Amino acid sequence: MSNLIVHGGAPLAGRIVPSANKNAILPILCATLLTAEPVRLRGITEITDVKKILEVFRSLGSSVEVDFQTGILDVHHKSTHFDPASDRLPEEMRSSIMLVPGLMARFGAARIEDDVKGCTLGAREIDPHVEVFERFGAVVERQSDGLLLNVPGRLRANDHWTDYASVTTTENFVLCAALAEGTSTLMNAASEPHVQEFCAFMQMLGAKLEGLGTSRLKISGVEKLGGGDFTFAEDFHEIVTFLALGAITGGDVQVKNSQPEQFPLIDRTFAKFGVRIEHKDGWSRAITTGALKVKEPFTRNILQKVEAAPWPYLPVDLLPIFVALGVKAEGSVMFWNKIYDGAMGWTSELSKFGAHAFLSDPHRMVTFGGKPLHAAEVESPYIIRVAIALLMVAASIPGRSVIRHAAPIRRAHPHFVENICSLGARIEWVEGD
Ligand SMILES: CC(=O)N[C@H]1[C@@H](OP(=O)(O)OP(=O)(O)OC[C@H]2O[C@@H](n3ccc(=O)[nH]c3=O)[C@H](O)[C@@H]2O)O[C@H](CO)[C@@H](O)[C@@H]1O
Ligand SMILES: C=C(OP(=O)(O)O)C(=O)O
Protein backbone atom coordinates (compact mmCIF):
# COMPACT_ATOMS: atom_id res chain seq x y z
CA MET A 1 0.00 0.00 0.00
CA SER A 2 1.28 3.49 -0.85
CA ASN A 3 0.97 6.15 1.83
CA LEU A 4 1.78 9.83 1.62
CA ILE A 5 3.70 11.56 4.38
CA VAL A 6 2.88 15.26 4.38
CA HIS A 7 4.81 17.89 6.36
CA GLY A 8 2.28 20.67 5.97
CA GLY A 9 1.99 24.34 6.71
CA ALA A 10 4.20 25.90 4.02
CA PRO A 11 2.57 28.34 1.59
CA LEU A 12 2.97 26.84 -1.88
CA ALA A 13 4.15 29.07 -4.68
CA GLY A 14 5.36 28.75 -8.24
CA ARG A 15 4.28 27.68 -11.72
CA ILE A 16 2.97 24.31 -12.89
CA VAL A 17 2.47 22.94 -16.38
CA PRO A 18 -0.32 20.40 -15.94
CA SER A 19 -0.44 17.04 -17.66
CA ALA A 20 -3.21 15.69 -19.91
CA ASN A 21 -6.62 14.63 -18.61
CA LYS A 22 -6.83 10.89 -17.86
CA ASN A 23 -10.49 10.95 -18.86
CA ALA A 24 -9.55 12.25 -22.32
CA ILE A 25 -6.51 10.02 -22.78
CA LEU A 26 -8.34 6.78 -22.00
CA PRO A 27 -11.27 6.99 -24.46
CA ILE A 28 -8.84 8.26 -27.10
CA LEU A 29 -6.54 5.30 -26.52
CA CYS A 30 -9.54 2.99 -26.82
CA ALA A 31 -10.59 4.79 -30.02
CA THR A 32 -7.27 3.99 -31.68
CA LEU A 33 -8.48 0.36 -31.87
CA LEU A 34 -10.98 1.48 -34.52
CA THR A 35 -8.28 2.17 -37.09
CA ALA A 36 -5.56 0.06 -38.70
CA GLU A 37 -3.59 3.24 -39.53
CA PRO A 38 -0.78 4.60 -37.32
CA VAL A 39 -1.68 7.16 -34.64
CA ARG A 40 0.69 9.48 -32.78
CA LEU A 41 -0.44 10.95 -29.44
CA ARG A 42 1.47 13.81 -27.80
CA GLY A 43 1.21 14.45 -24.07
CA ILE A 44 0.61 10.84 -23.05
CA THR A 45 1.14 10.39 -19.31
CA GLU A 46 2.71 7.68 -17.22
CA ILE A 47 -0.30 6.77 -15.13
CA THR A 48 -1.47 3.30 -14.13
CA ASP A 49 -4.64 3.28 -16.26
CA VAL A 50 -2.66 4.19 -19.39
CA LYS A 51 -0.05 1.53 -18.70
CA LYS A 52 -2.78 -1.11 -18.29
CA ILE A 53 -4.35 -0.24 -21.67
CA LEU A 54 -0.98 -0.20 -23.44
CA GLU A 55 -0.22 -3.61 -21.91
CA VAL A 56 -3.45 -4.97 -23.41
CA PHE A 57 -2.60 -3.50 -26.81
CA ARG A 58 0.81 -5.20 -26.72
CA SER A 59 -0.73 -8.50 -25.65
CA LEU A 60 -3.12 -8.27 -28.63
CA GLY A 61 -0.19 -7.87 -31.02
CA SER A 62 -0.44 -4.12 -31.68
CA SER A 63 2.70 -2.04 -32.10
CA VAL A 64 3.17 0.34 -29.15
CA GLU A 65 6.13 2.67 -28.83
CA VAL A 66 5.96 5.06 -25.92
CA ASP A 67 8.37 7.56 -24.43
CA PHE A 68 6.93 9.01 -21.23
CA GLN A 69 9.74 11.59 -21.04
CA THR A 70 8.69 13.27 -24.29
CA GLY A 71 5.05 12.19 -23.90
CA ILE A 72 4.96 10.69 -27.39
CA LEU A 73 3.07 7.50 -28.07
CA ASP A 74 3.02 5.77 -31.45
CA VAL A 75 0.37 3.10 -31.66
CA HIS A 76 -0.46 0.97 -34.66
CA HIS A 77 -3.14 -1.72 -34.54
CA LYS A 78 -2.09 -3.49 -37.69
CA SER A 79 -1.48 -7.12 -36.78
CA THR A 80 -3.86 -6.96 -33.85
CA HIS A 81 -5.76 -10.12 -32.83
CA PHE A 82 -8.37 -10.87 -30.16
CA ASP A 83 -9.79 -14.09 -28.79
CA PRO A 84 -12.63 -13.56 -26.28
CA ALA A 85 -12.06 -17.07 -24.88
CA SER A 86 -8.53 -16.34 -23.68
CA ASP A 87 -7.87 -12.57 -23.81
CA ARG A 88 -8.90 -10.47 -20.81
CA LEU A 89 -9.38 -6.70 -20.51
CA PRO A 90 -8.08 -4.55 -17.63
CA GLU A 91 -10.07 -4.43 -14.37
CA GLU A 92 -10.50 -1.82 -11.59
CA MET A 93 -10.75 0.91 -14.22
CA ARG A 94 -13.85 2.36 -15.78
CA SER A 95 -12.41 2.90 -19.22
CA SER A 96 -11.86 -0.80 -19.83
CA ILE A 97 -15.46 -0.78 -21.06
CA MET A 98 -14.50 1.57 -23.91
CA LEU A 99 -12.33 -1.11 -25.50
CA VAL A 100 -15.55 -2.93 -26.42
CA PRO A 101 -16.55 -0.95 -29.57
CA GLY A 102 -13.11 -1.29 -31.19
CA LEU A 103 -13.07 -5.03 -30.52
CA MET A 104 -16.64 -5.49 -31.78
CA ALA A 105 -16.00 -3.47 -34.94
CA ARG A 106 -12.78 -5.33 -35.76
CA PHE A 107 -13.31 -8.85 -34.45
CA GLY A 108 -17.09 -9.15 -34.10
CA ALA A 109 -16.65 -10.05 -30.42
CA ALA A 110 -15.72 -8.38 -27.13
CA ARG A 111 -15.86 -8.82 -23.37
CA ILE A 112 -16.92 -6.74 -20.38
CA GLU A 113 -15.00 -7.88 -17.32
CA ASP A 114 -16.73 -8.16 -13.95
CA ASP A 115 -14.89 -5.22 -12.40
CA VAL A 116 -15.06 -2.16 -14.63
CA LYS A 117 -16.14 0.05 -11.75
CA GLY A 118 -13.16 2.38 -11.26
CA CYS A 119 -13.31 4.65 -8.22
CA THR A 120 -15.65 3.48 -5.42
CA LEU A 121 -18.14 6.31 -5.76
CA GLY A 122 -21.30 4.22 -5.54
CA ALA A 123 -23.15 2.49 -8.36
CA ARG A 124 -21.13 2.44 -11.60
CA GLU A 125 -23.76 1.11 -13.95
CA ILE A 126 -22.99 -1.05 -16.95
CA ASP A 127 -26.61 -1.34 -18.19
CA PRO A 128 -26.52 1.92 -20.21
CA HIS A 129 -23.43 0.58 -21.98
CA VAL A 130 -24.92 -2.85 -22.62
CA GLU A 131 -28.04 -1.17 -24.00
CA VAL A 132 -25.91 0.88 -26.42
CA PHE A 133 -24.02 -2.21 -27.57
CA GLU A 134 -27.29 -4.12 -28.08
CA ARG A 135 -28.76 -1.25 -30.09
CA PHE A 136 -25.77 -1.42 -32.42
CA GLY A 137 -26.41 -5.15 -32.90
CA ALA A 138 -24.44 -6.96 -30.17
CA VAL A 139 -25.77 -10.17 -28.64
CA VAL A 140 -24.83 -10.19 -24.97
CA GLU A 141 -24.30 -13.35 -22.92
CA ARG A 142 -23.43 -13.57 -19.21
CA GLN A 143 -20.49 -15.84 -18.40
CA SER A 144 -18.98 -16.79 -15.05
CA ASP A 145 -16.26 -14.09 -15.23
CA GLY A 146 -17.90 -11.32 -17.24
CA LEU A 147 -20.10 -10.61 -20.25
CA LEU A 148 -19.43 -11.91 -23.75
CA LEU A 149 -20.58 -9.83 -26.73
CA ASN A 150 -20.96 -11.08 -30.28
CA VAL A 151 -21.85 -9.01 -33.33
CA PRO A 152 -23.11 -10.79 -36.40
CA GLY A 153 -21.89 -8.51 -39.25
CA ARG A 154 -21.36 -4.75 -39.27
CA LEU A 155 -22.60 -2.55 -36.40
CA ARG A 156 -26.04 -1.01 -37.18
CA ALA A 157 -26.73 2.73 -36.76
CA ASN A 158 -29.56 3.77 -34.43
CA ASP A 159 -31.12 6.71 -32.58
CA HIS A 160 -30.90 6.66 -28.83
CA TRP A 161 -31.90 8.88 -25.89
CA THR A 162 -30.17 7.92 -22.65
CA ASP A 163 -31.65 8.18 -19.14
CA TYR A 164 -28.88 10.58 -18.12
CA ALA A 165 -25.81 12.25 -19.61
CA SER A 166 -23.16 9.62 -18.95
CA VAL A 167 -19.57 10.35 -19.96
CA THR A 168 -18.36 6.88 -20.93
CA THR A 169 -21.74 5.80 -22.36
CA THR A 170 -21.64 8.81 -24.69
CA GLU A 171 -18.09 7.92 -25.70
CA ASN A 172 -19.09 4.31 -26.30
CA PHE A 173 -22.02 5.42 -28.45
CA VAL A 174 -19.72 7.57 -30.61
CA LEU A 175 -17.15 4.77 -30.85
CA CYS A 176 -19.80 2.33 -32.08
CA ALA A 177 -21.48 4.82 -34.42
CA ALA A 178 -18.25 5.91 -36.13
CA LEU A 179 -18.00 2.68 -38.15
CA ALA A 180 -21.67 1.61 -38.07
CA GLU A 181 -23.78 1.36 -41.19
CA GLY A 182 -25.96 4.49 -41.41
CA THR A 183 -26.46 7.62 -39.33
CA SER A 184 -26.88 7.52 -35.54
CA THR A 185 -28.04 10.21 -33.14
CA LEU A 186 -27.62 10.40 -29.40
CA MET A 187 -29.80 12.64 -27.23
CA ASN A 188 -28.79 13.51 -23.67
CA ALA A 189 -25.15 13.16 -24.65
CA ALA A 190 -22.52 14.14 -22.10
CA SER A 191 -20.38 17.17 -23.02
CA GLU A 192 -17.59 17.44 -20.43
CA PRO A 193 -14.31 18.98 -21.69
CA HIS A 194 -12.85 15.47 -21.96
CA VAL A 195 -15.85 14.30 -24.02
CA GLN A 196 -15.29 17.30 -26.33
CA GLU A 197 -11.58 16.44 -26.62
CA PHE A 198 -12.43 12.83 -27.42
CA CYS A 199 -14.95 13.92 -30.10
CA ALA A 200 -12.32 16.20 -31.66
CA PHE A 201 -9.96 13.22 -31.84
CA MET A 202 -12.67 11.12 -33.52
CA GLN A 203 -13.13 13.88 -36.09
CA MET A 204 -9.38 13.85 -36.71
CA LEU A 205 -9.57 10.11 -37.44
CA GLY A 206 -12.25 10.91 -40.02
CA ALA A 207 -15.45 10.28 -38.03
CA LYS A 208 -18.41 12.24 -39.39
CA LEU A 209 -19.60 13.76 -36.13
CA GLU A 210 -21.79 16.82 -35.61
CA GLY A 211 -22.85 18.54 -32.39
CA LEU A 212 -19.53 18.43 -30.52
CA GLY A 213 -20.01 19.92 -27.05
CA THR A 214 -23.81 19.70 -27.16
CA SER A 215 -26.34 17.21 -25.80
CA ARG A 216 -27.23 15.98 -29.32
CA LEU A 217 -24.58 14.14 -31.29
CA LYS A 218 -25.11 12.99 -34.87
CA ILE A 219 -22.67 10.51 -36.36
CA SER A 220 -22.71 9.20 -39.93
CA GLY A 221 -20.84 5.91 -40.04
CA VAL A 222 -17.91 5.56 -42.44
CA GLU A 223 -16.34 2.40 -43.95
CA LYS A 224 -13.00 3.04 -42.32
CA LEU A 225 -11.12 5.56 -40.18
CA GLY A 226 -7.64 6.93 -40.76
CA GLY A 227 -4.69 7.73 -38.49
CA GLY A 228 -3.20 11.04 -37.38
CA ASP A 229 -1.23 13.11 -34.92
CA PHE A 230 -3.02 14.52 -31.86
CA THR A 231 -1.87 16.69 -28.94
CA PHE A 232 -3.73 16.59 -25.63
CA ALA A 233 -4.91 19.74 -23.85
CA GLU A 234 -4.13 20.45 -20.18
CA ASP A 235 -6.20 18.57 -17.62
CA PHE A 236 -8.75 20.89 -15.98
CA HIS A 237 -8.74 18.65 -12.87
CA GLU A 238 -5.01 19.31 -12.42
CA ILE A 239 -5.42 23.03 -13.10
CA VAL A 240 -8.11 23.29 -10.41
CA THR A 241 -6.15 21.11 -7.98
CA PHE A 242 -2.94 23.12 -8.15
CA LEU A 243 -4.82 26.44 -7.95
CA ALA A 244 -6.70 25.13 -4.91
CA LEU A 245 -3.44 23.96 -3.32
CA GLY A 246 -2.09 27.49 -3.68
CA ALA A 247 -5.24 28.94 -2.11
CA ILE A 248 -5.55 26.48 0.78
CA THR A 249 -1.93 27.01 1.84
CA GLY A 250 -2.09 30.80 1.48
CA GLY A 251 0.48 30.70 -1.31
CA ASP A 252 0.63 31.91 -4.89
CA VAL A 253 0.32 29.24 -7.59
CA GLN A 254 0.00 29.76 -11.34
CA VAL A 255 -1.00 26.98 -13.73
CA LYS A 256 -0.77 26.84 -17.51
CA ASN A 257 -4.27 26.85 -18.97
CA SER A 258 -5.00 27.17 -22.68
CA GLN A 259 -8.77 26.76 -22.24
CA PRO A 260 -9.97 29.46 -19.79
CA GLU A 261 -13.28 29.51 -21.70
CA GLN A 262 -14.13 26.24 -19.88
CA PHE A 263 -13.70 27.95 -16.49
CA PRO A 264 -16.44 30.52 -15.73
CA LEU A 265 -18.42 28.24 -13.39
CA ILE A 266 -15.23 26.85 -11.84
CA ASP A 267 -14.06 30.43 -11.17
CA ARG A 268 -17.40 31.31 -9.56
CA THR A 269 -17.09 28.24 -7.35
CA PHE A 270 -13.63 29.34 -6.17
CA ALA A 271 -15.10 32.78 -5.45
CA LYS A 272 -17.56 31.18 -3.00
CA PHE A 273 -14.51 30.46 -0.79
CA GLY A 274 -12.96 33.91 -1.21
CA VAL A 275 -10.52 32.84 -3.94
CA ARG A 276 -10.23 34.95 -7.09
CA ILE A 277 -8.99 33.21 -10.24
CA GLU A 278 -7.23 35.33 -12.81
CA HIS A 279 -6.61 34.06 -16.36
CA LYS A 280 -3.87 35.94 -18.18
CA ASP A 281 -1.51 35.16 -21.07
CA GLY A 282 -2.26 31.43 -21.01
CA TRP A 283 -1.81 31.09 -17.25
CA SER A 284 -4.34 30.88 -14.42
CA ARG A 285 -3.58 32.19 -10.93
CA ALA A 286 -5.34 31.80 -7.58
CA ILE A 287 -5.41 35.06 -5.66
CA THR A 288 -6.31 35.19 -1.97
CA THR A 289 -6.20 38.03 0.51
CA GLY A 290 -5.93 36.84 4.10
CA ALA A 291 -7.69 33.77 5.48
CA LEU A 292 -10.26 31.99 3.30
CA LYS A 293 -13.83 33.05 4.02
CA VAL A 294 -17.08 31.68 2.63
CA LYS A 295 -19.16 34.23 0.71
CA GLU A 296 -22.51 34.63 2.49
CA PRO A 297 -25.60 34.28 0.27
CA PHE A 298 -28.07 37.20 0.25
CA THR A 299 -30.98 34.78 0.51
CA ARG A 300 -31.84 34.39 4.18
CA ASN A 301 -31.82 30.94 5.80
CA ILE A 302 -29.91 29.12 3.11
CA LEU A 303 -26.37 27.84 3.12
CA GLN A 304 -23.80 28.72 0.51
CA LYS A 305 -23.78 25.67 -1.80
CA VAL A 306 -21.75 23.90 -4.46
CA GLU A 307 -23.66 21.57 -6.78
CA ALA A 308 -21.99 18.98 -9.00
CA ALA A 309 -23.76 17.33 -11.91
CA PRO A 310 -23.12 16.49 -15.58
CA TRP A 311 -21.51 19.34 -17.58
CA PRO A 312 -22.23 22.26 -17.91
CA TYR A 313 -22.65 21.94 -14.12
CA LEU A 314 -19.54 21.77 -11.97
CA PRO A 315 -17.80 18.42 -12.71
CA VAL A 316 -18.36 15.95 -9.91
CA ASP A 317 -14.71 14.90 -9.76
CA LEU A 318 -13.87 18.44 -8.61
CA LEU A 319 -16.21 18.33 -5.62
CA PRO A 320 -13.69 16.88 -3.10
CA ILE A 321 -11.20 19.61 -4.03
CA PHE A 322 -13.76 22.24 -3.04
CA VAL A 323 -14.70 20.29 0.10
CA ALA A 324 -11.06 20.71 1.19
CA LEU A 325 -11.43 24.48 0.71
CA GLY A 326 -14.73 24.31 2.63
CA VAL A 327 -12.99 22.74 5.63
CA LYS A 328 -10.46 25.57 5.66
CA ALA A 329 -12.64 28.59 4.85
CA GLU A 330 -14.52 30.29 7.68
CA GLY A 331 -18.26 29.73 7.17
CA SER A 332 -20.61 26.95 6.09
CA VAL A 333 -21.09 25.32 2.69
CA MET A 334 -23.41 22.58 1.49
CA PHE A 335 -21.86 20.26 -1.09
CA TRP A 336 -24.35 18.45 -3.29
CA ASN A 337 -23.21 15.48 -5.35
CA LYS A 338 -26.09 14.97 -7.77
CA ILE A 339 -24.40 12.04 -9.51
CA TYR A 340 -23.00 9.46 -7.12
CA ASP A 341 -24.71 7.84 -4.16
CA GLY A 342 -21.56 6.68 -2.37
CA ALA A 343 -18.97 9.38 -2.87
CA MET A 344 -19.11 11.16 0.47
CA GLY A 345 -18.40 8.45 3.03
CA TRP A 346 -15.01 10.00 3.74
CA THR A 347 -16.50 12.82 5.84
CA SER A 348 -15.37 10.96 8.97
CA GLU A 349 -11.74 11.09 7.79
CA LEU A 350 -11.95 14.90 7.75
CA SER A 351 -12.90 14.91 11.43
CA LYS A 352 -9.53 13.31 12.24
CA PHE A 353 -7.98 16.65 11.28
CA GLY A 354 -10.38 18.36 13.72
CA ALA A 355 -12.58 19.52 10.84
CA HIS A 356 -16.31 19.93 11.32
CA ALA A 357 -18.16 18.30 8.42
CA PHE A 358 -21.57 16.70 8.48
CA LEU A 359 -22.91 14.08 6.08
CA SER A 360 -26.60 14.95 5.67
CA ASP A 361 -27.44 12.09 3.30
CA PRO A 362 -25.58 10.06 0.65
CA HIS A 363 -25.56 13.06 -1.71
CA ARG A 364 -25.02 16.01 0.63
CA MET A 365 -22.34 17.14 3.03
CA VAL A 366 -22.04 20.39 4.98
CA THR A 367 -18.69 21.85 6.04
CA PHE A 368 -18.48 24.25 8.98
CA GLY A 369 -15.07 25.60 8.07
CA GLY A 370 -12.42 27.70 9.74
CA LYS A 371 -12.14 25.46 12.84
CA PRO A 372 -8.64 24.86 14.29
CA LEU A 373 -7.08 21.89 12.46
CA HIS A 374 -4.26 19.58 13.49
CA ALA A 375 -2.06 17.10 11.64
CA ALA A 376 -3.48 13.56 11.56
CA GLU A 377 -3.29 10.10 10.05
CA VAL A 378 -6.21 9.53 7.69
CA GLU A 379 -7.23 6.81 5.27
CA SER A 380 -8.28 7.45 1.70
CA PRO A 381 -11.03 5.43 0.02
CA TYR A 382 -10.32 4.14 -3.52
CA ILE A 383 -11.25 7.54 -4.96
CA ILE A 384 -8.57 9.54 -6.78
CA ARG A 385 -9.85 13.01 -5.96
CA VAL A 386 -10.55 12.22 -2.30
CA ALA A 387 -6.93 11.15 -1.77
CA ILE A 388 -6.02 14.54 -3.25
CA ALA A 389 -8.50 16.45 -1.07
CA LEU A 390 -7.11 14.80 2.08
CA LEU A 391 -3.60 15.69 0.92
CA MET A 392 -4.71 19.31 0.38
CA VAL A 393 -6.06 19.61 3.92
CA ALA A 394 -2.88 18.01 5.29
CA ALA A 395 -0.69 20.39 3.25
CA SER A 396 -2.44 23.36 4.86
CA ILE A 397 -1.79 22.21 8.47
CA PRO A 398 1.60 22.55 10.18
CA GLY A 399 2.94 19.16 11.29
CA ARG A 400 3.24 15.61 9.95
CA SER A 401 0.14 13.99 8.50
CA VAL A 402 -0.22 10.61 6.83
CA ILE A 403 -2.63 9.85 3.98
CA ARG A 404 -2.93 6.08 3.95
CA HIS A 405 -3.81 4.25 0.72
CA ALA A 406 -3.21 7.27 -1.51
CA ALA A 407 -2.20 5.17 -4.54
CA PRO A 408 -5.38 6.03 -6.54
CA ILE A 409 -3.69 9.39 -7.25
CA ARG A 410 -1.35 7.49 -9.56
CA ARG A 411 -4.33 6.46 -11.71
CA ALA A 412 -4.68 10.03 -12.97
CA HIS A 413 -1.80 12.32 -12.05
CA PRO A 414 1.78 11.66 -13.18
CA HIS A 415 4.58 13.15 -11.05
CA PHE A 416 1.95 14.62 -8.73
CA VAL A 417 4.06 14.65 -5.60
CA GLU A 418 7.12 15.94 -7.50
CA ASN A 419 4.98 18.78 -8.86
CA ILE A 420 3.72 19.79 -5.40
CA CYS A 421 7.24 19.58 -3.99
CA SER A 422 8.40 21.92 -6.76
CA LEU A 423 6.01 24.47 -5.19
CA GLY A 424 7.77 24.17 -1.84
CA ALA A 425 5.84 21.33 -0.18
CA ARG A 426 7.46 18.51 1.81
CA ILE A 427 5.59 15.38 0.77
CA GLU A 428 6.83 11.87 0.08
CA TRP A 429 5.52 8.45 -0.85
CA VAL A 430 6.17 5.63 1.62
CA GLU A 431 5.29 2.01 0.97
CA GLY A 432 3.58 0.44 3.98
CA ASP A 433 0.27 -1.06 5.09
C1 LIG B 1 -13.14 7.26 -17.24
C2 LIG B 1 -14.09 8.39 -16.99
O1 LIG B 1 -14.31 9.22 -17.84
N1 LIG B 1 -14.64 8.45 -15.75
C3 LIG B 1 -15.51 9.56 -15.43
C4 LIG B 1 -16.89 9.26 -15.98
O2 LIG B 1 -17.31 8.01 -15.42
P1 LIG B 1 -18.66 7.29 -15.96
O3 LIG B 1 -18.79 7.51 -17.41
O4 LIG B 1 -18.62 5.93 -15.43
O5 LIG B 1 -19.74 8.13 -15.22
P2 LIG B 1 -21.28 8.35 -15.64
O6 LIG B 1 -21.37 9.69 -16.29
O7 LIG B 1 -21.79 7.18 -16.35
O8 LIG B 1 -21.92 8.46 -14.19
C5 LIG B 1 -21.57 7.54 -13.16
C6 LIG B 1 -22.78 7.05 -12.42
O9 LIG B 1 -23.47 8.13 -11.84
C7 LIG B 1 -24.88 7.91 -11.94
N2 LIG B 1 -25.49 9.07 -12.64
C8 LIG B 1 -24.74 9.91 -13.42
C9 LIG B 1 -25.30 11.01 -14.01
C10 LIG B 1 -26.68 11.26 -13.79
O10 LIG B 1 -27.23 12.26 -14.30
N3 LIG B 1 -27.39 10.39 -13.06
C11 LIG B 1 -26.83 9.29 -12.46
O11 LIG B 1 -27.51 8.52 -11.79
C12 LIG B 1 -25.08 6.56 -12.63
O12 LIG B 1 -25.25 5.59 -11.64
C13 LIG B 1 -23.76 6.34 -13.35
O13 LIG B 1 -23.42 4.98 -13.45
O14 LIG B 1 -17.78 10.33 -15.63
C14 LIG B 1 -17.95 10.50 -14.21
C15 LIG B 1 -18.98 11.61 -14.00
O15 LIG B 1 -18.52 12.81 -14.52
C16 LIG B 1 -16.60 10.81 -13.56
O16 LIG B 1 -16.75 10.80 -12.15
C17 LIG B 1 -15.55 9.78 -13.93
O17 LIG B 1 -14.27 10.24 -13.54
C1 LIG C 1 -13.71 8.63 -10.89
C2 LIG C 1 -12.66 8.77 -11.70
O1 LIG C 1 -12.21 7.86 -12.61
P1 LIG C 1 -12.85 6.44 -13.00
O2 LIG C 1 -14.17 6.71 -13.60
O3 LIG C 1 -11.86 5.92 -13.99
O4 LIG C 1 -12.89 5.66 -11.74
C3 LIG C 1 -11.88 10.01 -11.71
O5 LIG C 1 -11.14 10.23 -12.70
O6 LIG C 1 -11.97 10.80 -10.75
Automatic annotation (TrEMBL):
Residues 7-419 form the Enolpyruvate transferase domain. Signal peptide: none annotated. It is found in: Cytoplasm. Gene3D superfamilies: Enolpyruvate transferase domain (3.65.10.10). GO terms for cellular component: cytoplasm. Its EC number is 2.5.1.7. It holds the Pfam family EPSP_synthase. Keywords: Cell cycle, Cell division, Cell shape, Cell wall biogenesis/degradation, Cytoplasm, Peptidoglycan synthesis, Transferase. It is an enzyme of class 2 (transferase). GO terms for molecular function: UDP-N-acetylglucosamine 1-carboxyvinyltransferase activity. It catalyses: phosphoenolpyruvate + UDP-N-acetyl-alpha-D-glucosamine = UDP-N-acetyl-3-O-(1-carboxyvinyl)-alpha-D-glucosamine + phosphate. GO terms for biological process: cell division; cell wall organization; peptidoglycan biosynthetic process; regulation of cell shape. Pathway: Cell wall biogenesis; peptidoglycan biosynthesis. Belongs to the EPSP synthase family. MurA subfamily. This is UDP-N-acetylglucosamine 1-carboxyvinyltransferase. The lineage of its organism: Bacteria, Pseudomonadati, Pseudomonadota, Betaproteobacteria, Burkholderiales.
